[in-house]
Inverse folding.
């Protein structure tokens, strides 16, 4: 790993990625903590926002939707 051998190789992009991952892990842990006010929906919303911020396609499906409905939603997004 270049980063270990050359600490100056750490870029702002890498730091942003690490920061995002830590934020997501914290949200997931907080959502599992019964003493926390963070809900699973809050954590999911953060995951989607962070993914979109990183340029990834992030989909949210109705948990009660059929597999066919979920596939149709994914196809509609990927054709945009």
């Amino acid at each position: 790993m270049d980063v270990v051998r050359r600490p100056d190789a750490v870029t702002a992009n890498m730091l942003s990625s690490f920061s995002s991952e830590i934020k997501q892990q914290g949200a997931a842990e907080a959502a599992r903590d019964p003493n926390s006010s963070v809900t699973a929906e809050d954590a999911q919303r953060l995951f989607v926002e962070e993914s979109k911020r990183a340029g990834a396609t992030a989909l949210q499906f109705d948990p009660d939707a059929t597999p066919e409905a979920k596939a149709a939603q994914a196809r509609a997004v990927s054709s945009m």
